[in-house]
Amino acid sequence: MEDVVIVGAGIAGLATAVALKKVGVRALVLERSEGLRAAGAALTLFPNAWYALDALGISHKLTSIYTPFYKGYVTDVKTKAIQEVSYGASKGSGDEQRAVNRKVLLQVLAAELPSNTIRFSSKLTSIETQVEQGSSICILALEDGTIIKSKVVIGCDGVHSRIARWLGLDSPVDSGRSAIRGLAVYPQGHGLNHEFQQFVDVSKRAGFVPLNDKEIYWFFLCKAPPKDADIGVDPSLLLRDVVDNLAKDFPPLYLDVVGQSDLSALTWAPLIFRYPWDVILGNLTRAHITVAGDAMHPMTPDLGQGGCSALEDAVVLARHIGSSISKLGKLETCGVGFALERYARERRWRAAMLITASFLSGWVSQDGSSWWMRFLRDVFYNFILGKAFSASRYDCGKLC
After folding, report:
1. How many whole angstroms separate alpha carbon 171 and alpha carbon 76?
2. Cβ proximity of 150 and 137 under 8 Å
3. Could you write out the three-class secondary structure of the chain?
4. Whole-angstrom Cα distance, residue 275 to residue 109?
5. Right CATH number for 2-173+272-393 from 1.10.10.10, 2.60.40.10, 3.50.50.60, 3.40.50.460?
6. What is the C-alpha to C-alpha distance for residues 341 and 126, in angstroms, rounded to an integer?
7. pLDDT tens track of the chain, all 400 residues?
8. Do residues 212 and 62 make contact, with C-beta atoms less than 8 angstroms apart?
9. Nearest CA to 170 among 93, 77, 281, 253?
10. Where are the domains of the chain?
């Protein structure tokens, strides 16, 4: 019997477990893999993520490693025109953004938890609910035959979440675009400025940002998937396809970064998202079961808010669940359902807004080469992008 079971040990799952620990609730995290998974190489964390990490008490462990960036440049591959993009933060303001290694973030989160919190190689096969002594209890069956009863279940099991399907949420949809992500390593240092560089072409968008003096995170977004993507991609073949085919017309600087890639960190994936109206109108919680992170709000990466919003979810969810703890320090099932409903109300509209803004940002940045699309891109980067990033300064609050 557990108080809380979290399905999935990604960013949302581990952050939620840390947040619950901060409010005095123990959670068991079930992860189907044999260890921590870090697909995606790295991610950019904007101010809203750092506010959440502050609430979790671990931001200092990452800010001491990764340097913030304050501006970037967008280069049109065809015309060579360059636009400067300001991210609206000044040095030392606290409203800063940093790119971090995804695996390091997971390790920092996992280090905050007791050693027996995460149970690896634990694949969920079924979930059901029943009423015991007047309270709703969740029953989870694992592939190894284990049966776990829990007062609360939180699905943090990614874009193809089994928990989201159980709640009745519609499956995410394909955006029609793909992402290739990698990590370039320079043992002697790369010598580049700490700035976000992006390159835009017809139906293609790419970019890179340094993590530190020796590592650079890069990405390539396109409509056409890489060769043989349907049968799995060999990292070396994927890298060659980017350099020799997909990005052959991109600047030499970008191709040099791609050429320094660590093959073990190279990934390809289709970009999928959940329709925002499904988040607004769908069941985000039922019978002491809810979802967080990509399980709730998968979105395209065009505003870099996937991981950031998952960290927000963790803090908000733990704060509401913490309100159900009795004076004796026990999680009271009679109040948990109301706590999860309050969490869903607080997150529903913000998640839908981020999904919408991310999708529109990707459409404007990457689709079409007509004169009016180029004009729309100029307007977007010069006037709208800054307002879109204002959503990244959202403060999800503290934990008691």
Report:
1. 35
2. yes
3. CEEEEEECCCHHHHHHHHHHHHCCCCEEEECCCCCCCCCCCEEEECHHHHHHHHHHCCHHHHHCCCCCECEEEEEECCCCCEEEEECCCCCCCCCCEEEEEHHHHHHHHHHCCCCCCEECCCCEEEEEEEEECCEEEEEEEECCCCEEEEEEEEECCCCCCHHHHHHCCCCCEEEEEEEEEEEEECCCCCCCCCCEEEEEECCEEEEEEECCCCEEEEEEEECCCCCCHHHCCCHHHHHHHHHHHHCCCCCHHHHHHHHCECHHHCEEEEEEECCHHHHHHCCCEECCEEECHHHCCCCCHHHCCHHHHHHHHHHHHHHHHHCCECCCCCECHHHHHHHHHHHHHHHHHHHHHHHHHHHHHHHHHHCCCCHHHHHHHHHHHHHHHHHHHHHHHCCCCCCC
4. 30
5. 3.50.50.60
6. 23
7. 899 999 999 999 999 999 999 999 999 999 999 988 866 689 999 999 999 999 999 999 999 899 888 888 989 888 888 888 877 665 555 678 999 999 999 999 999 999 999 999 999 999 999 887 777 899 999 999 999 999 999 999 999 999 999 999 999 999 989 999 999 999 999 999 999 999 988 888 899 999 999 999 999 998 866 665 554 578 888 899 999 999 999 999 999 999 999 998 898 889 999 999 999 999 999 989 999 999 999 999 988 899 999 999 999 999 999 988 877 778 888 889 999 999 999 999 999 999 988 888 877 765 545 555 555 555 555 555 556 667 788 999 999 7
8. no
9. 281
10. 2-173+272-393
Q: Locate all alpha helices (DSSP H) within 23-154, ordered by sequence.
A: 47-56, 59-63, 102-111
The residue type at 189: G
Say if residues 113 and 152 touch (Cβ distance below 8 Å).
Answer: no
pTM value?
A: 0.91
d(CA 375, CA 392): 25
What DSSP character marks residue 120? -
Pairing of strands 267-273, 215-222: unpaired
